[in-house]
Specification:
Elements: H1 3-19, H2 28-39, H3 45-55, H4 65-86, E1 90-91, E2 94-95, H5 97-100, H6 103-121, H7 129-155, H8 161-186, H9 191-218, H10 221-224, H11 230-233, H12 239-247, H13 250-261, H14 267-281, H15 283-303, H16 310-324
Antiparallel strand pairs: 1-2
Helix pairs in contact: 1-3, 1-4, 1-16, 2-6, 3-4, 3-8, 3-16, 4-6, 4-8, 7-8, 8-9, 9-15, 12-15, 13-14
């Protein structure tokens, strides 16, 4: 099997497993939204990381499709509830669950998804199950903490770089870390390697979010797939804005505050003006440097693990590098 077909085959197996899950039938208003959100696609990166990490040590990654899918079901549960909080009308180009049904149904269906994620973890060997549940619970709580910090930032006048990086670590990165950690534990990897896999995932996850922040402002519109500058338009406190507020002086600071405080504006004009301030302050380079630091730290952890299956090691590294160099 070639390296390229390895990931494709695993993704195909994961997709089939997820789509064939029977979460429940009645009342249909409770269960249809679960099938709906899981049918919207997505890259399935998190469960893929789990099976790839398992494959570093064992030759039968199909054995943990259920546990890997638990990570994806939990992830989509968070998306369903996040969309309610953000009042988002679309998810992956389709109506969000609360728009297609209503808020109450979206809340309740999301709750059931969380329960079903636990069901998917149950095939774990009894000796490993308590640790897996403990780590899953820790991760789930941290994701919620990250979401709350993110919401808090909306009303806070000043957010530090340290606070922002901690927020994205919790909201986004720890789940990637857990996905890799899960695969390692289920495969019987040693404790040191399990920790390195987790740290690899967390560092890469923070780097991915910084990459998203950067793409939102500096991506090629033709490749990006959504409006460039959305974060600027909404005054979202990203790494770029936090650094600009920290570094801007004199007229730059005044103009930045002008655009942040303006309630009615031309979107293109605001994006162009704030982007010009970012470019003057060297914000793109600062973000790229910070992002690269996290990616390099992650790969240092990854390169030092003691794996058994080189094809999985090479494939996992390639998948990660492809995500790092994406343009959308």
């Amino acid at each position: 099997m070639t390296e390229k077909s390895l990931a494709h085959a695993l993704l195909g197996n994961l997709e089939n497993f997820i789509q064939n899950q029977k979460f429940g039938e009645s009342p249909r208003e409770l269960y249809e939204p679960i099938t709906y959100i899981l049918s919207l696609g997505g890259k399935r990166i998190r469960p893929l990381l789990s099976v790839m990490a398992y494959g570093l040590y064992q030759n039968d990654p199909g054995k943990i499709l259920s546990q890997a899918s638990a990570v994806e079901v939990f992830h989509n549960f968070t998306l369903m509830h996040d969309d309610i909080m953000d009042q988002a009308p679309l998810r992956r180009g389709k109506a969000t669950v609360h728009e297609k049904w209503n808020h109450n149904i979206a809340i309740l269906s999301g709750d059931v998804m969380m329960v079903k994620a636990y069901d998917l973890l149950l095939p774990t060997e009894p000796v490993l199950l308590p640790e897996i549940i403990r780590l899953f619970n820790k991760t789930a709580a941290e994701v919620c903490e990250g979401q709350q910090f993110d919401m808090n930032f909306e009303s806070e006048a000043e957010v530090t770089e340290e606070a922002y990086l901690n927020m994205i670590r919790l909201k986004t990165a720890v789940l990637l870390g857990f996905a890799l950690q899960l695969g390692g534990i289920l495969a019987g990897a040693n404790r040191e390697d399990v920790q390195k896999l987790y740290d690899f995932g967390v560092n890469i996850g923070v780097g991915f979010q910084l990459k998203d922040d950067l793409l939102d402002v500096f991506a090629d519109q033709a490749k990006f797939g959504k409006q460039v500058g959305g974060d600027i338009i909404s005054n979202k406190k990203t790494f770029l804005l936090i650094k600009a507020l920290e570094l801007a002086k004199g007229k730059d600071a005044e103009e930045l505050q002008f655009w942040l405080s303006k309630k009615e504006f031309d979107k293109e004009e605001k994006v162009k003006a704030v982007k010009a301030i970012y470019e003057k302050l060297g914000i793109k380079t600062l973000t790229e440097t910070k992002m690269s630091g996290y990616f390099e730290a992650g790969f240092r952890q990854f390169e030092s693990i003691s794996f058994k299956n080189e094809n999985y090691f090479n494939e996992l590294r390639q998948i990660t590098e492809d995500l790092i160099h994406r343009e959308k």
